[in-house]
Sequence to fold (273 residues):
Amino acid sequence: MKKILVPVDFSEYSEYALEVAAQIAKEQNASIVIFHMIGLSESVLSKSELEEQEEAKYYIKLAKDKIKTFTDKPYLKNVVVKTVLQNFKIFSEVNLVAKEQNIDLIVMGSHGISGLKTFFVGSNTEKVIRTAEVPVIVIKKKRSSFDINNIVFACDLKPENCSAFNKVKDFALTFSARLHLVYINTIGINFMSNSQIQEKIDAFTSLIGEEIPIKIYNDYSIEQGIFNYASDISADIVAIPTHGRIGLAHFFMGSIGESVANQANTPIMTIKI
Fold:
């Protein structure tokens, strides 16, 4: 891991993400790219060329001054930090910056229980997750100490999740962390017998080419099962796969992935399939 991208809006939540990114960067000897969207309004861009240039310079200087203050933190000492300012207004374009900067990981902040629906403006965290081609870690509270020792990968064992599993496996190896793969079995119409689940496990392990222990965890809902299992093993991160086409809504059933990311206090890592 060489580069970590941190989108910032100067809120406390993006500072939580920056502090976690700094800890990861120190451990992995990586650098941080701070990305801020200036988002000049149409009224500015509709002015004369000279007026537009002068006003753009003003907003750029204002952003640079804010970033200088924002990054004047002890936890960034000895970390190489680069700043990227763009006039983007659509958060899906964060992926363009990630590509241009050869980013390996995105770390971003998200507001409390409402999570993905209120990051920056509207559901911009979800927009980044849907489009990002690298893993995204969502941080929702201050974490002065962030060690990655146990990672939960929760999925429905469908073949399409094999690629996400391999990415999480590589991530776990990078941090010398233990990877826990879990399948949540719920009461109701989706309940499966042990033999039915074992068939899914056999098919999945055959596709990934290795025998890996897969925990079958029974609970009343998939979300609660993930939370409870993560708590049981003191997980540092919960990883879930996502489809870029329809975002987190395709995880398991309905909007399970979004619900998990919204409610979980444990950092969530999403991996695009």
Remarks:
- Residues 140 and 265 are 7 Å apart (CA to CA).
- The longest strand covers residues 178-186.
